[in-house]
Amino acid sequence: MTELRHDEVAEGVRAAMHTYVHALDDGRTDDIVATFCPHGVFDSGALGVAEGHAALAETYAGWKPTIPQRHVMANTVLTEWSDNSAKATSDVIFMVKAGSGWTVQLVGRYDDTLRNVDGSWRFERRVLRFVD
Hints:
Elements lengths: L5 H21 L2 H5 L2 E8 L5 E3 L1 H9 L7 E13 L3 E14 L2 E17 L2 E11 L2
Parallel strand pairs: 1-6
Antiparallel strand pairs: 1-2, 3-4, 4-5, 5-6
């Protein structure tokens, strides 16, 4: 078996992140949950922790958007990687459209641990911390 190169792992990790935020902004709960391993954890600090697909589905179903929203991922750095696992840190800006324009609602940072599951990267642990 050929080992994955850094750029291959990085692209897989970015694809997981972008799939996640597109599904989140569209309110597609099943697609969000599919970006996590079955035992995956989302830890959003003050907003709580969800572990496992059932808890993730319940959490994200409660966060379906009622107005247009966008999560913008930026500055992703792959901090550790192998063929089977990766760790990454990314900044996120969350915006909503209300009235005549878009407004920034929050700025945060994700610290992610991902697993390569049959060639597709999934979140094992996703930690979100808000920036004051």
